[in-house]
Protein 1
Amino acid sequence: MAKTFHLEIIATDRVFYQGECEHLVITAIDGLLGIMAGHEPLVTALPDGELKYMVDGKWHYAAISEGFIQVMPDNSVILADTCELPEEIDIKRAEEDRQRAQEKLRQKQSIQEYYQTQAALNRAMNRLKISQKHFK
Amino acid sequence: MANMREIRERIDSIKQILKITNAMYLISSSKLKKARKALDATEPYFYKLQETIESVMEHTPHMRQMYFDRRLDIPPEKRKKGYIVITADKGLCGSYNHNILKFTENELAKSPDISNCYLFVLGHVGRMYFTSRLKNSSKPFVDGEFLYTTQNPTLYRAMEIAKLVLDKFENRELDEVYVIYTDMVTSNVQEERMIQLLPFSRRHFGKAPDGTMKKLPKASFLPSPEEVMAHLIPDYAKGIIYGAMVEAFCCEQQSRMTAMDSATTSAKDMIKQLSLLYNRARQSAITQEITEVVSGASSLE
């Protein structure tokens, strides 16, 4: 068995995962990032994206929205707005969110509103992608 | 002794009020259940966020970043301070509103020039209080367009508020930003708290209850400390505001429930006392009547 490190994934509405983990792959703001036990101390921000972590040789997947990660050699903490398993994602709702955001982007909006809509669109697309990839 | 009809009316009106307070008690206790659940779900995040940021700060090299700028060139009397104050939308919740307003008042009194204070008040009661405040000529500025409710806090609302204050901070419309809210220590103990949101400093982090500090070498930041902080701080602000909103909402429901419970109890007590009085009045009236009849009859003999 591979060396493990303690991983905590905490979303605003629940503690998503807390326990040992062998390998963690996340999307950071500048690309994918793989973390294993003994990683150098690191802090980075996370955009909406995919997250996967290996426990007992098995990969687990999740959709994560904005947050950040703090990596220490023996433990890592991920704090995010939301974190969902692929099977928890409501495809219909995500699809609706996507359509609504796309519809809104066609309207004239202030810059701020535009960014907000874009963020909403990103979130919806990310959820759809992950749900389609891992759960059918 | 008061007359019977008066007491009767009094009892009836108390009964009416009892119905209202009892209904409000039931409503707030069911709302409290919901708020408690949200609080239990959010509390790990709220504390972990403060703890993690604190530990991140310890590993952060010195840097120049917009949100860290303490603006020392601005003298204390000219600093524009922003306060996000979380109050309730309605009254009838004991001393909850009163406490938070008094706490805010104290904080305002500490600043050298009160007209340089900007208030962002969540909740109707606080908004009304500060807009109509006429203690002396200098008043804090209350943002009239800042209309957010405190009912059922959502992350989206927290995001909007965070964005608003961060924008104001970036545009130098505010030099310091604080969040004032009520913290639920235990279900019976509530405490008003103030958290400094901006400028971001290494020192102001209160320790989480289970906060453990470790000394470790400087961490690396990807792609760069400045870039990471530009993402991390808005996220932190949002998290703190959301956490504070959840805590405050739960406190509000808790204090409303307690207040309504004690109102119901004292209404019941009053009814008890009044019915005793009523019965006495009734009895003495009957006794008097009998005495009159008897004495009337005996005078005829």
Note: The interface with chain A takes residues 38, 41-42, 44-45, 48-49, 52, 55-56, 59-60, 155, 163, 216-223, 227-228, 231-232, 235, 238-239, 242 of chain B (CB under 8 Å).
Protein 2
Amino acid sequence: MEKAYKKYFWLFVLPTLIAFTLFFVIPFIMGIVLSFCKFTTVTNAHFVGLTNYIKAFSNKDFLNALWFTTKFTVVSVITVNVFAFILAYALTRGVKGTNLFRTTFFMPNLIGGIVLGYIWQLIINGVLAKFGVTITADPKYGFWGMVVLMNWQLIGYMMIIYIAGIQNIPTELVEAAKIDGAGKMQALFKVTIPMVMSSITICLFLTLTNSFKLFDQNYALTAGGPAKKTSMLALDIYNTFYGRNGWEGVGQAKAVIFFILVGILALTQLYFTRRKEVES
Amino acid sequence: MKMKKVLSVALAAAMVAGLAVGCGSSKSAESDEGSVYYLNFKPEVAEVWEDIAKKYTEETGVEVKVKTAASNQYEQTLKSEIAKSDAPTLFQINGPTGYNAWKDYCADLSDSDLYDMLLDQDLAIKDGDGVYGIPYLEEGYGIIYNQAIMDKYFALSGAKAASMEDINSFDKLKEVSEDMQARKDELGIEGVFASTSFAPGEDWRWQTHLMNLPIHYEYEDAGVTDEDEITFKYSDNFKNTFDLYLNNSCTEPSMVGSKSVDDSMAEFALGKAAMVQNGNWAWGQISQVEGNVVTEDNIKFLPIYTGMDGDESQGICIGTENYFSVNSEASEEDQKASLDFVKWVFSSDEGKKMVTNDLGFITPFNTFLEEESPADPLAKEVIRYMSDTDLTSVSWDFQTFPSQTFKDNYGAALLQYATGSEEWDQVVKDTVADWKTEKEATAE
């Protein structure tokens, strides 16, 4: 019986495999090939070797965007996770109205990035108008505006993951710690946090990649202003692709570099936090 | 057992088949006459083009598909559409820079009827002996003013001018604007000029349109139509007008970063500002603002004076950035169908009526009689300036600006200057350098 099925395994894999090849593998390979080409549309590309990569790396906008993105990612990964964990911790203490709070905090995550960006642009500009400036007056407004926006949007989602993690901790562990005389802080740092390490892994992964790849919010909130000083990597790639005739390939090359960077970052982070996970 | 096996194979096969069906799109039957796919640039007249297409299909039976790119998304849309097997057969390029990007796709139109219909064949985009882009409308921009507010000012005691005719140079414009700004409460306005919009993507009126004037005069002095390097020798003239807009406005210079073009046009429409720099396409926008107080006979154009010698004889800026191109990769039949379609639009009675009344275009074709011109008040103003032989129109030399990146960088620098975080000298220096870099970057 089992053998009979095994013989046909390729048939069952086939539909997914075709879809995966058509919509993922082929576009991905095409993307890499195009990064070595000069082209206007994907059908009239011709090979130019490494020129695009040289241009990408000698482009100061790209390096600025890389630095800005790094700063942004560090700040937002820390803030999002700290706040999300605090919320999750508070909302697993059996506070009245827990479900209502959870729902409310989760809601921002359901709104699209572009819409969020415009809404927050209005809010922030409205506040800054009191001081006679706008969000594009100084790059630091844009930076913190984006951090606030990112927190507002992602905290709810991360909170749900942390709540699930905290609820999975066996009660006897917490009780045992209490009986052994552990204080609240000790219980938190010695029991709860180590026990939710797998949630931390996934949350760090999600916030890290989401912050690094941020596009919609950046595009809608500041569009890189003032003078590209708040433009992140994804936005810079977009601007390179559409900003100059004949630079489509350079945009593509930047995108490939971007992919490699995100890959390295995410894998390194996974490797380090995985090692800290414990079994109960 | 055997039954089950057969069933599973059948099911799997059905899934694969379903997938295959999902991928293959149903192709419409190809007719010998070919069909037209027009990628329209102007979202504000999207519906009109669809009506024209419908009418043409009714009359000739040739299928015409019209798709409109979202505002500011034309290049992006064209890039993805033209790579498809069902690509646009008729699209538009925005001038020499656009031709450079799309030359692999532009068919030679020198034998087309549309080209023969052009009043001035020099306006077409040419490369060697070939003609690759044919302009299909002319537009003008300048300083739009509200005659009602101006009349109110002229009636005040001690007004610096008696009528609009007196305002024929930058110095006079400055004197009047500053006086009006000082007496804005008497006039019931919040500022002379509407907001100098600088929200992301809303700065084209300055980095492109206003910048056109100093560059135009620089080209003119050198006797050229394009340059790899500029000196920006008329930067002070740009600054003159730009400062005038900023300092005599209903918005503080520090707040311009949050204003959009829509905001500016609304301020003008509601009578909060007396003047706004924009083109004849803006009438539609102004008239649609809720609570619009600007009447059709009170909206006029003033040339953009920058303090050049000879301001008095300068007209408004007239030109086009709308050129038809036919996709050379499309089939012979489709190319011919596209040319027949545009010929019908711009020469048949039915087509011309829709062009004049519904599209509101001022066309550069000899098929249009004098009385066949749009009723739009600003379009009428453009025609008035075009036919005024005492004034010289400024051509649209911004078509030769190096790239979108150049314009964006310049716009960003202008915003920095407006909010006081960058010195003007620095803006000028960076712009000269950026022009050179961008020309080089796009030259290969």
Note: Chain B has two domains: 36-138+320-368, 140-319+393-443.
Protein 3
Amino acid sequence: MNHLPLIIKREYLTKVKNKSFIVMTILSPIIMIALVAIVAYLSQLNNDKVRTISVLDESGLVQDIFKNSEKTTYHILENMSLEDAKSISKETGSYGLLHVDKLDAVESTSKHIKFYSEETPSLTLISSLESKLEKTLTNIKLQRQGIDIDLINASKIRIDIAQESFEGEKTSKLDSFARLGFGIAAGYLLFMFIIIYGNMIMRSVIEEKTSRIIEVIISSVKPMQLMLGKIIGTSLAGITQFVIWMIFGGLLMTVVSLVIGINLFDSTTPQQELMQLATEEGGFNFYFESFKTALQNLPLMNLIIAFILFFISGYLLYSSLYAAIGAAVDNETDTQQFLLPIMMPLILAVYIGIFTVIEDPHGTVSTVFSFIPFTSPVVMLMRIPFGVPLWQQLVSLLILVGTFIFTVWFAAKIYRVGILMYGKKPSYKELIKWIKY
Amino acid sequence: MNNLLEVNEVSKNFGDFKALNKVSIIVPKGSIFGLLGPNGAGKTTLIRVINQITIPDHGKVRLDGELLNPIHIKDIGYLPEERGLYKSMKVGEQALYLAQLKGLSKAEAKTRLKYWFDRLEIGDWWNKKIQELSKGMAQKIQFVVTVLHQPKLLIFDEPFSGFDPINANLIKDEILRLREEGATVIFSTHRMESVEELCDDIALIHKSNKILEGKLIDIKRDYKINTYEVGIRTNNKEILEQELASKFDVSEANFKTLEDELKLNIKLSETNRPNDLLSYLTSKGEISHFVELIPSVNDIFIQTVKNN
């Protein structure tokens, strides 16, 4: 008798009807969006503040370069001692005082330039001052050496290396960003999914043990069927929750950004940098166009199919282990010692993915770890956007599926023995023994 | 086929531990079969083998003449000793789910549940959650779920634990009624008085081995000790006691009487007949009490386990 659909249905319905599940489904996106909104709002508040900076230029070389901008006002002080300047800028409530001493030679400038302030000044402010001074002083030095600055400017060449693969596909720098984005998103999604819903499966197994219903159930269905039903039912509930989060989260995001008037999508800095990078290189259109080609250049079909296959096998691999842990223990506090060895390869995979795949998607480390079954789903998903040969994908998937079949078998063994064991916390040695039962 | 269940030389090891050692039992159709034994003897393992929860290392199990296979799941109803229900699920939903797992259709399960819930007067619990019910109430639901699919073989492991005397009686009557309707019952318990009352056949398992099996009445005959409990009114108790002690194997007895009688247990040798004893005693005084001592299941249990 095949009871799998019945078990899946029960698992799914009890999960979805559960109060805390419903609350989490609705509350999580609200909390997330609220946090993002608050952070965005606060950082905007900070940016809106206008700073006054006093400048005392005793060298007389640089005071012309400080032009008032939206966020910074420069207050130029002249003909006074440093002490007077300090007290004046304090009284006027300036953010700080930039002091440029008399300069004998332009070489030793840095010793003569100082910034005084009440608090530690912000890094961005200092670096913007530094770059301003650097530019001006370099020009002055060049002039003193008798070099024509106009000539230098005229001879400057701007290089933007056009990228093309051997097959003739055009690529750009944005490509790498898009690929990285896809890879990290996919890998991270799998990681989160395993942790959240793996735990849920584990708890559901423990619940059946502690409520002592397990022996009644197991006299009607095979333990393997029950375990698979649990995994599939919980996963479906998970997918439901994820989809709701995406839709609800997206809607909320739009509503919030409309209401508060903050563009949440733009508040992240890398994107801003990208924007600047693109606009500098030829306007907004260029940015948009290259983004489109970047998307087109992604191996989309490959990405989607690989995502589905690696996601499912990777998830099943880990969730069967979670089910086995749930069966082996009596309560949640005993799960820690068994969870650690599961978490290790998972976290390792994410770190390898983020650090080495960015560095070199086809390097030895990332290639090797994209074949090892416990890290391969995450690492391979991160590598695939950069173009992985089909044979590598297939071999990795084959190893993964082989391991997955083995772990499910192994987990089912532990499961069928574990669910009927009460009252003691098993050691690893005992778990190995159970396999022979 | 007069036997519903035949367990033939079943062995099961858990690592180095031998849980069952070539255990064979035969359960006649329509009987109530008591499966007895001290804690940890292997009863639960045997029951799990019959339920196909545990696969035996050796030996065969036949149900109604057929080797045990997954089809038989619907023919067996099992109430385990370690039992419970999903705490946060509603009574009705839960009962329906468990019934469907035993192969009943949803509609059929619903009709039968209605019938049983009315019968046990628990109809208004349908939409309650288990955590709102008392232990005894939950036990009733479990009983219903166990028998709902009308299995040929019912296995009850300590069915009366958790019930008050009234409900225990109710469940006992239901078990007897199910037997009348043709079910065969395996009954595992430590309450010897229920075995005495209900069981036709028993098997005793001790340290993974079956050490005793048969009709309860036959076993009692085998264990009879040829001893009679006697109460006799006489003027001189001490003289009579000495006289009897010289002729028979005599020990002190304890039972309630109206007068101050001489109370003795008298064990007869092979050659003595109870009638001879009786006529001898009538000449000595007025007999108020003369009963053959029948070994109780309790005595048989303790004696057999000790001797092994």
Note: The mean pLDDT of chain B is 89.
Protein 4
Amino acid sequence: MSINTKIIGRSVPRIDGRDKVTGAAKYTGDIKFPNMLFGKILTSPHAHARIISIDTSAAEALPGVKAVITHKDVPDIKYGISPARWDENIFCIDKVRFVGDKVAAVACTDEETCYKALKLIKVEYEVLPAVLDFRKAMDAGMPQVHDEYPKNINVEIHQEFGDIEKAFKEAHLVRTDAFLGNRAYQSPIEPHSATSLWDGDKLTVYSSTQSPHYFQYYIAREFGMDMGNVRVVKPYVGGGFGGKMEPTGLEFAGAVLAKLTGRPVRMFFDRHEMFAHNRGRHAQYMEITTGVTKDGKILGAHSNFMMDGGAYTSLGIATAYYAGALLPLTYEFDHYKFDLFRLYTNLPACGAQRGHGAPQPKYAFESHLDNVATELGIDPMDIRILNARRPETVTPNDFAIHSCELTQCLTRARIISNWDAKKKEGGMPKGHGIGVSTGSFVSGAGYPIYRTDLPHSAVVIKVNEDGTSATLYTGAPDIGQGSDTVLCQMAAEAMGFHYEKMKIIAADTETCPMDLGAYASRLTLMTGAACKSAGEEIKKSLLEMASSMLHLPPDDLECEDAIIYSKSRDGKALTFQEVARKHFVLKGPLIGKGSYNPPKLGGKFKGSPVGTSPAYSFGVQVGEVKIDEETGEIEAVGFWDVHDCGTVVNPRLLHGQVHGALSMGMGESVWEEVLFDDEGRIKNPDLANYRILTALDMPPVESEIVESYEDIAPWGVKEIGEGSTNPTMGCFSNAIYDAMGVRVYSLPLSYEKVWRALKEKREREHGGKE
Amino acid sequence: MYLPDFDYHSPESLDEALSLLAGLGSGAKVLAGGTDLLHKMKQGDLAPEALVSLKGLDELKGINYVEGRGVVIGALSTQNDILYSEVLAKKYPSVSHAAKKMASNQIRHLGTVGGNIVNAVPSADLPPILIALGATITLASTSGKREMALEDFFVEPASSVIEEGEILTEVAIPDGGFTGSSYHKFGLRRSGALAVVGVAVSARVENGVIQEARIVCASSAPKVIRAPKAEEFITGKTSAPDTLAELQAIVESEVRPRDSIRGSAEYRRNLAGVLAKRALIDAVESGHGIHAED
Amino acid sequence: MNTIQDKEGVKRYMLSLTVNGDPHTVVVKANTTLSQVLRNELALTGTKQGCELGDCGSCTVLMDGKPVNSCMVLALEAEGREVTTIEGVAEGAKLSDLQESFVNHGAVQCGYCSPGMVLSAKALLARNPHPSELEVREAISGNLCRCTGYVHIVEAILAVSEGRTTPPEEANAGGEA
């Protein structure tokens, strides 16, 4: 379906572009208040230890130190994503559970004094044996990370849909493969910081956050305050990718330090502390079994996973459910079983990272599917086309799929990557290989991040008094993905106004209506829907006003490009500006309001809400790699991404999301891994040895969109921000296999692992054991 | 992150710098580009009482060809000075190429050749190619100057023979008989990566036969090392595939890497052999020129 | 260099440098980095701090025209030098071509790497007005970006080298429908 839009579909420049290229854009750490102090958190040097005593006296005596706090100075209310798993305190009380666990905090006159003061806090620990390998966490005799959770099981999931045994019995081939994931870290370039200040009973926190509303909720809850007395403001944010979704401790500690000192306090992480706090991608052990027919049709699948949760729940319950729940999205089969244990270890907690829960299982499933295809002698592209999900279908775990152009994506990717020619003998230079993989992701979560009946998104648009501009007020946080721009486009479209005349006030809990935040790729669809309602309300008011000015019925009038005109009579027209001004004079402020609540979604089984969404994006990636046989070095030669993301609001921003998601997926595929030593300390907490891609590592990328329209969404839109991370790891795995005939069963698919696999293959062949 | 306090001195001549250093004693460190020194200080690995900045010492800058001495590189030449040097582009593009493989553009504008040598890090990129070309260095102190082969400068583990009060002033690449040279670095991404292994090779080739060769390996032992058995093996031979395979195996047997976060000892051993082979091919086939990839 | 000593015996040094054409004199401890002087003393917070170890490039400024990581430069080493920060790139209210091109090409997402990225690109084009794509990638390879995959950044820089600040498909239409 094609739609007639004026602003949606145009690559308008970002609304914040000018601020960001001139250095005018203020991020949390750039904002300075008079009399401001600086604060830091003292963290545990041990993976697991009992706190015997804490002596802060030497730190307090250091000139420039204004306050030192420990668990005694803060509420002892535990927090986390779900009430059943609230397991984290602002500061550790009895014991520390990972290297980096929070113990105390200081507020000082400058940054340097903070570091010096931390060194003067004397904490006596009794070191305890630690759980460092999640695959052994359930074993008998392992230490307990939390006494309340026996066998270190944070959550276990056992779901079965259909009859998996029957499916396997009927299958021509039943194959099992096992894979191991890596701990990755979001690594936004802007480090976390939070500045707290009090005005009487009211607390204001400026924070580098993906969800001002969720922070407001948690800060109010921790301190027993009314939400109305907590204001959270998001200045410009330098990337989040899931790592700025929940309060880090900087907000809690800063609030207390600001209260105690009566001064604004800026708390901040340095790069090392970011890594230590972590909440990155869970490393998972993934066993996948599928039963297929002779032709390659998947009959059923079983995912059997274990996941390294780290020391706390964080957002990990959602991650755990997502890991299995999203797997049946791209391929149609009726029988599905999903078992998972998320385990506590004495490592930093894991949380949500771009593609939340889905990318590693996708790596496993897509690698496995290629193994199946190889065994059956089927082309990897063909087996995917054969199984590809179709529109208006329902997954075995009760997710209703409406628009879905996966087959078209596969077909198109096949053409633009020149797949068939490359797959022929001699179709690529020696050492090259090509792989394909699919992905899908939610366009917003069907249920809120915490239990509430509040709408998921709400906005207000105010047309300014003389009608020359309009301001969109939204709680939605732009963390770099471009929501401020896209939402203004949508608001202007609905009003019949100009994008260039839109202003935006966003992500401030006091001046903006609430929004659940930038996660689960939700803003374009959900906040977009709220913008559409608000814009249409304004248009309706304007047309009514114009109706009385032109003496024509409102339904004969339309507003486009800021001109209100009669549909039936030529020459009868007024400007948006004059009608809006008249409205203000005669009827008061011209305001539009909108809010969004998803429809009731999903099944009735335990965990059924996770993975539900009004709409799902679908995508395909093809990657070509070149392997250096002697060193295992992997060069990404080219990538092709073809996406079904519904109607495109801003093509340039959209492709930018694809490029970014792909580059993050690439990093995790080959280059990135948080490494720990045998005492649970991170060995590479810096950007030299945690290798996110540089401009020289990034291959040419072709990003393409297929025609698609989502009926349930405003203007037919769907998500893009996270979906393109999902296929990438599987794509690399399959391309490497195609190039070299070796499969690497653990992430990252590092040069050394590829080299080793090749060496072992040579040895097998020479040893004649193949 | 912060730098511990120190006193700062910025002398205006080498003599002034040397007497300052002599007076300050063991608590003082020399500050050139600062990219290694400040890094260590921020990480808490070093807390000197004083820094003597060399920024005012113009006499330690410049890359020139001096008749009878060869290419003389002032110790304060930055890595980008080396990369963009016309003298080196003409005489030893291989040295510029090694500089190009270092860190990032911004760091290369700061980091100096002197710093890269004096820090004595086994993964440093400039020493292997300089040693392969038979470079000498000059160390100055209040008691005079001494010159030595760069190769003799490093001692295990990761330290050098530099003495308190000494400043490295220049590096000289003598007009040697080498007809070709090359440095191959293996990093885990294409920029901002330390060498997992780096190997430099120089060779004197006559009629396709290698008369003399130096094979110098970085990140392959606690200091930059030569592979003497491999050098001896290749002397008098051509770069035929079978010979190279044997050379690769000999280099593998001579290096002594350890397991690190960038690679296992076994992997790095393999890399040293592969890179030595590739660098030798370049040195034989492309003179001091730059690899095909560039 | 003029110094004064506080009561703990720590010296303060008087530092003079030129930033974006303006002369400045500040009093700093020896351990102060150039990035700290720019951000804290001169309130030029466009110079970002991402890693403080010279790995990310967010703090890139031009010192005598050359891009350096200002977190790895002692402030005192900038004595007498000309420093250009992102605040000094636009010509008054008018964006420079590079800035304009970054905005129009969608080369900016979160924006945290953008100041350093623009300055690295500015230095490149000053030295080499018509770089190849590889040369562009090399020049910005010390500026880490976690958002864009560098695709639009490279396009934006190459466009300026070709005398454009707008993507070809949008140059006439002012946006594709």
Note: Chain C has six helices and six strands.
